[in-house]
Amino acid sequence: MSFTDLSRGVSTASEGVLTGLPYAEFLGLQFSVGQDGVTLIMPFTKALIGSPQPPRLHGGSVAGLMEIASIAQLLHSLRDEEKVPAIKPIDVTVDYLRAGQPEDTYARATIVRMGRRVVNVQVTAWQSDADKPIATARMNVMLKR
Amino acid sequence: MNIVMKPVIDQFMKFIPHIRELGIGYSGVGRDWAELSLPWQEKLVAYPAPDGEKGVIASGAVFTLMDSVGGFSVQAARKIPAPVATVDLRLDYLRPANPGETVYGYSKVHKLTRSIAFVRGYAHDGEREDPIALMAGCFMLTSGSKS
Protein backbone atom coordinates (compact mmCIF):
# COMPACT_ATOMS: atom_id res chain seq x y z
CA MET A 1 0.00 0.00 0.00
CA SER A 2 1.48 3.31 -1.01
CA PHE A 3 0.48 6.76 0.19
CA THR A 4 -2.24 6.98 -2.47
CA ASP A 5 -3.40 3.45 -1.62
CA LEU A 6 -3.71 4.48 2.03
CA SER A 7 -5.74 7.46 0.87
CA ARG A 8 -7.97 5.17 -1.21
CA GLY A 9 -8.19 2.68 1.67
CA VAL A 10 -9.48 5.16 4.23
CA SER A 11 -11.82 6.67 1.60
CA THR A 12 -13.51 3.53 0.38
CA ALA A 13 -13.06 0.63 2.80
CA SER A 14 -14.71 0.53 6.22
CA GLU A 15 -11.87 -1.33 7.85
CA GLY A 16 -8.55 -2.96 7.08
CA VAL A 17 -4.88 -3.28 7.84
CA LEU A 18 -2.35 -0.56 7.01
CA THR A 19 -0.12 -2.61 4.73
CA GLY A 20 2.83 -1.49 2.63
CA LEU A 21 3.68 1.40 4.96
CA PRO A 22 6.69 -0.17 6.71
CA TYR A 23 6.57 1.74 10.04
CA ALA A 24 2.75 1.46 10.33
CA GLU A 25 3.10 -2.25 9.55
CA PHE A 26 5.83 -2.56 12.17
CA LEU A 27 3.36 -1.14 14.73
CA GLY A 28 0.74 -3.60 13.39
CA LEU A 29 -1.83 -0.85 12.73
CA GLN A 30 -5.40 -1.48 11.56
CA PHE A 31 -8.03 1.09 10.61
CA SER A 32 -11.76 1.40 10.86
CA VAL A 33 -13.79 4.14 9.17
CA GLY A 34 -17.08 5.19 10.79
CA GLN A 35 -19.41 8.18 11.15
CA ASP A 36 -16.90 10.08 13.27
CA GLY A 37 -13.91 9.47 11.02
CA VAL A 38 -10.97 7.09 11.03
CA THR A 39 -10.05 5.11 14.13
CA LEU A 40 -6.68 3.38 14.19
CA ILE A 41 -6.11 0.26 16.27
CA MET A 42 -2.69 -0.82 17.54
CA PRO A 43 -3.14 -4.40 18.81
CA PHE A 44 -0.93 -5.15 21.79
CA THR A 45 2.29 -7.05 21.11
CA LYS A 46 5.34 -7.47 23.31
CA ALA A 47 7.39 -5.53 20.74
CA LEU A 48 5.59 -2.33 21.85
CA ILE A 49 6.73 -2.55 25.47
CA GLY A 50 8.90 0.31 26.70
CA SER A 51 9.08 -0.54 30.38
CA PRO A 52 9.25 -4.24 31.23
CA GLN A 53 8.24 -4.35 34.92
CA PRO A 54 5.38 -3.76 35.17
CA PRO A 55 4.83 -3.98 31.39
CA ARG A 56 3.93 -0.59 29.91
CA LEU A 57 3.74 0.57 26.29
CA HIS A 58 6.60 2.71 25.02
CA GLY A 59 5.38 6.30 24.79
CA GLY A 60 6.98 6.49 21.36
CA SER A 61 4.79 3.70 19.99
CA VAL A 62 1.68 5.61 21.16
CA ALA A 63 3.06 8.81 19.58
CA GLY A 64 3.69 6.94 16.31
CA LEU A 65 0.12 5.61 16.39
CA MET A 66 -1.29 9.12 16.96
CA GLU A 67 0.82 10.68 14.17
CA ILE A 68 -0.40 8.08 11.68
CA ALA A 69 -4.00 8.55 12.96
CA SER A 70 -3.66 12.26 12.04
CA ILE A 71 -2.45 11.45 8.54
CA ALA A 72 -5.17 8.82 8.03
CA GLN A 73 -7.92 11.24 9.16
CA LEU A 74 -6.48 13.97 6.97
CA LEU A 75 -6.47 11.69 3.93
CA HIS A 76 -10.05 10.69 4.74
CA SER A 77 -11.08 14.36 4.98
CA LEU A 78 -9.36 15.13 1.66
CA ARG A 79 -10.87 12.10 -0.11
CA ASP A 80 -12.90 14.21 -2.56
CA GLU A 81 -9.94 16.31 -3.71
CA GLU A 82 -8.87 15.68 -7.29
CA LYS A 83 -5.21 15.28 -6.37
CA VAL A 84 -4.12 14.20 -2.90
CA PRO A 85 -1.64 16.80 -1.60
CA ALA A 86 1.71 15.75 -0.16
CA ILE A 87 1.53 15.79 3.64
CA LYS A 88 4.48 16.74 5.87
CA PRO A 89 4.51 16.96 9.66
CA ILE A 90 5.59 20.39 11.00
CA ASP A 91 5.48 19.64 14.71
CA VAL A 92 3.82 17.36 17.22
CA THR A 93 3.25 17.74 20.95
CA VAL A 94 2.21 14.70 22.95
CA ASP A 95 0.73 14.84 26.47
CA TYR A 96 0.99 11.55 28.31
CA LEU A 97 -1.98 11.20 30.67
CA ARG A 98 -1.84 7.59 31.84
CA ALA A 99 0.61 4.71 31.54
CA GLY A 100 -0.06 2.56 28.46
CA GLN A 101 -1.22 -0.85 29.66
CA PRO A 102 -0.33 -4.06 27.78
CA GLU A 103 -3.63 -3.86 25.88
CA ASP A 104 -4.90 -2.81 22.45
CA THR A 105 -4.68 0.95 21.88
CA TYR A 106 -7.00 3.14 19.77
CA ALA A 107 -6.47 6.60 18.33
CA ARG A 108 -8.74 9.07 16.56
CA ALA A 109 -7.88 12.48 15.17
CA THR A 110 -10.02 15.60 14.75
CA ILE A 111 -9.18 18.26 12.19
CA VAL A 112 -9.37 21.50 14.20
CA ARG A 113 -8.61 23.75 11.25
CA MET A 114 -8.08 22.81 7.64
CA GLY A 115 -6.09 25.63 6.07
CA ARG A 116 -4.86 25.71 2.51
CA ARG A 117 -1.30 25.04 3.59
CA VAL A 118 -1.37 24.22 7.31
CA VAL A 119 -3.73 21.84 9.08
CA ASN A 120 -4.11 21.72 12.86
CA VAL A 121 -5.05 18.30 14.21
CA GLN A 122 -6.01 17.09 17.69
CA VAL A 123 -5.54 13.39 18.47
CA THR A 124 -6.67 11.20 21.37
CA ALA A 125 -5.43 7.71 22.25
CA TRP A 126 -7.24 5.37 24.62
CA GLN A 127 -7.41 1.72 25.64
CA SER A 128 -10.26 -0.25 27.26
CA ASP A 129 -12.12 2.90 28.42
CA ALA A 130 -12.60 5.60 25.77
CA ASP A 131 -13.39 8.12 28.54
CA LYS A 132 -9.93 7.65 30.02
CA PRO A 133 -7.46 8.73 27.32
CA ILE A 134 -3.88 7.58 27.82
CA ALA A 135 -2.46 10.37 25.65
CA THR A 136 -3.47 13.37 23.56
CA ALA A 137 -1.49 15.06 20.81
CA ARG A 138 -1.61 18.30 18.88
CA MET A 139 -0.09 18.28 15.45
CA ASN A 140 0.50 20.86 12.72
CA VAL A 141 0.81 19.45 9.23
CA MET A 142 1.90 21.07 5.98
CA LEU A 143 -0.01 20.39 2.76
CA LYS A 144 1.86 20.68 -0.53
CA ARG A 145 -0.73 21.00 -3.28
CA MET B 1 31.91 10.26 30.63
CA ASN B 2 29.29 9.16 33.09
CA ILE B 3 30.75 5.77 33.99
CA VAL B 4 27.90 4.92 36.35
CA MET B 5 25.29 5.22 33.62
CA LYS B 6 26.91 3.58 30.60
CA PRO B 7 26.42 -0.05 31.76
CA VAL B 8 22.90 0.85 32.93
CA ILE B 9 21.99 2.24 29.53
CA ASP B 10 23.55 -0.74 27.74
CA GLN B 11 21.53 -3.12 29.91
CA PHE B 12 18.34 -1.13 29.47
CA MET B 13 18.70 -1.35 25.70
CA LYS B 14 18.76 -5.11 25.80
CA PHE B 15 15.66 -5.49 27.96
CA ILE B 16 13.25 -2.94 26.53
CA PRO B 17 11.48 -4.71 23.66
CA HIS B 18 10.39 -1.62 21.70
CA ILE B 19 13.89 -0.10 21.85
CA ARG B 20 15.45 -3.39 20.77
CA GLU B 21 12.95 -3.80 17.92
CA LEU B 22 13.74 -0.32 16.62
CA GLY B 23 17.48 -1.03 16.85
CA ILE B 24 18.09 1.97 19.14
CA GLY B 25 21.61 1.85 20.60
CA TYR B 26 23.98 3.64 22.94
CA SER B 27 25.89 6.60 21.54
CA GLY B 28 27.08 8.62 24.53
CA VAL B 29 26.28 9.81 28.03
CA GLY B 30 27.52 12.60 30.30
CA ARG B 31 26.75 14.32 33.58
CA ASP B 32 23.39 15.69 32.44
CA TRP B 33 22.98 14.46 28.87
CA ALA B 34 22.63 11.28 26.81
CA GLU B 35 22.77 10.37 23.14
CA LEU B 36 21.24 7.33 21.44
CA SER B 37 21.43 6.10 17.85
CA LEU B 38 18.72 4.84 15.49
CA PRO B 39 20.29 3.11 12.46
CA TRP B 40 18.28 3.26 9.22
CA GLN B 41 16.16 0.16 8.65
CA GLU B 42 13.67 -0.68 5.91
CA LYS B 43 10.97 -1.45 8.48
CA LEU B 44 11.16 2.08 9.95
CA VAL B 45 10.39 3.83 6.68
CA ALA B 46 7.17 5.89 6.50
CA TYR B 47 6.41 5.42 2.79
CA PRO B 48 8.39 3.16 0.48
CA ALA B 49 10.40 5.24 -2.00
CA PRO B 50 9.87 4.62 -5.73
CA ASP B 51 12.32 2.55 -7.80
CA GLY B 52 13.80 0.62 -4.88
CA GLU B 53 15.43 3.74 -3.39
CA LYS B 54 15.80 3.96 0.37
CA GLY B 55 12.83 5.66 2.05
CA VAL B 56 12.74 8.29 4.80
CA ILE B 57 12.53 7.09 8.43
CA ALA B 58 9.03 7.70 9.86
CA SER B 59 8.74 10.71 12.16
CA GLY B 60 7.10 8.41 14.71
CA ALA B 61 10.31 6.35 14.96
CA VAL B 62 12.29 9.56 15.54
CA PHE B 63 9.76 10.47 18.26
CA THR B 64 10.43 7.14 19.98
CA LEU B 65 14.20 7.79 19.80
CA MET B 66 13.75 11.23 21.40
CA ASP B 67 11.34 10.00 24.10
CA SER B 68 13.87 7.26 24.95
CA VAL B 69 16.91 9.54 25.05
CA GLY B 70 14.97 12.14 27.03
CA GLY B 71 14.28 9.55 29.72
CA PHE B 72 17.89 8.31 29.71
CA SER B 73 19.25 11.85 30.06
CA VAL B 74 17.10 12.30 33.17
CA GLN B 75 18.48 9.06 34.59
CA ALA B 76 22.00 10.25 33.77
CA ALA B 77 21.38 13.57 35.55
CA ARG B 78 19.94 11.79 38.60
CA LYS B 79 22.72 9.16 38.43
CA ILE B 80 20.18 6.46 39.27
CA PRO B 81 18.27 4.25 36.83
CA ALA B 82 14.93 4.98 38.56
CA PRO B 83 11.93 5.00 36.21
CA VAL B 84 10.70 8.27 34.75
CA ALA B 85 7.40 9.00 33.02
CA THR B 86 7.06 11.37 30.09
CA VAL B 87 4.66 14.22 30.94
CA ASP B 88 4.88 15.83 27.53
CA LEU B 89 7.21 15.87 24.58
CA ARG B 90 7.26 18.18 21.57
CA LEU B 91 9.19 17.71 18.36
CA ASP B 92 9.66 20.25 15.57
CA TYR B 93 10.36 18.37 12.37
CA LEU B 94 12.87 20.64 10.63
CA ARG B 95 13.57 18.37 7.68
CA PRO B 96 13.31 14.68 6.72
CA ALA B 97 16.23 12.44 7.74
CA ASN B 98 18.56 11.48 4.89
CA PRO B 99 17.53 8.00 3.70
CA GLY B 100 20.06 5.36 4.79
CA GLU B 101 21.71 7.53 7.46
CA THR B 102 21.74 6.70 11.18
CA VAL B 103 19.71 9.20 13.20
CA TYR B 104 21.14 10.33 16.55
CA GLY B 105 19.05 11.71 19.39
CA TYR B 106 20.66 14.04 21.94
CA SER B 107 18.98 15.23 25.13
CA LYS B 108 20.21 17.45 27.96
CA VAL B 109 18.55 18.09 31.32
CA HIS B 110 18.31 21.83 31.91
CA LYS B 111 16.59 21.70 35.27
CA LEU B 112 15.95 18.94 37.75
CA THR B 113 13.46 19.61 40.53
CA ARG B 114 12.28 17.12 43.14
CA SER B 115 9.57 15.82 40.86
CA ILE B 116 10.09 17.15 37.32
CA ALA B 117 12.96 17.22 34.83
CA PHE B 118 12.97 19.78 32.01
CA VAL B 119 14.87 18.63 28.92
CA ARG B 120 15.84 20.03 25.54
CA GLY B 121 17.39 18.12 22.70
CA TYR B 122 17.68 17.53 19.02
CA ALA B 123 17.94 14.76 16.44
CA HIS B 124 20.59 14.84 13.73
CA ASP B 125 21.86 12.47 11.06
CA GLY B 126 25.58 13.18 11.14
CA GLU B 127 25.91 16.95 11.45
CA ARG B 128 24.82 18.54 14.71
CA GLU B 129 24.69 21.95 13.03
CA ASP B 130 22.01 20.68 10.65
CA PRO B 131 19.48 18.95 12.95
CA ILE B 132 16.45 17.10 11.61
CA ALA B 133 14.30 17.77 14.69
CA LEU B 134 14.24 19.90 17.85
CA MET B 135 12.86 18.49 21.09
CA ALA B 136 11.39 19.98 24.27
CA GLY B 137 10.02 17.80 27.03
CA CYS B 138 9.08 17.32 30.68
CA PHE B 139 9.57 14.10 32.59
CA MET B 140 8.11 13.13 35.94
CA LEU B 141 10.39 11.44 38.43
CA THR B 142 8.52 8.48 39.79
CA SER B 143 8.99 5.08 41.28
CA GLY B 144 5.78 3.72 39.80
CA SER B 145 3.22 4.32 37.10
CA LYS B 146 1.10 7.45 36.81
CA SER B 147 -2.30 5.78 36.71
TrEMBL record, chain A:
Q: Which residues form the Acyl-CoA thioesterase-like N-terminal HotDog domain?
A: 56-139
Q: Which domain of life is it from?
A: Bacteria
What name appears for this protein in its UniProt entry?
Answer: PaaI family thioesterase
Species assigned in the record: Pacificimonas pallii
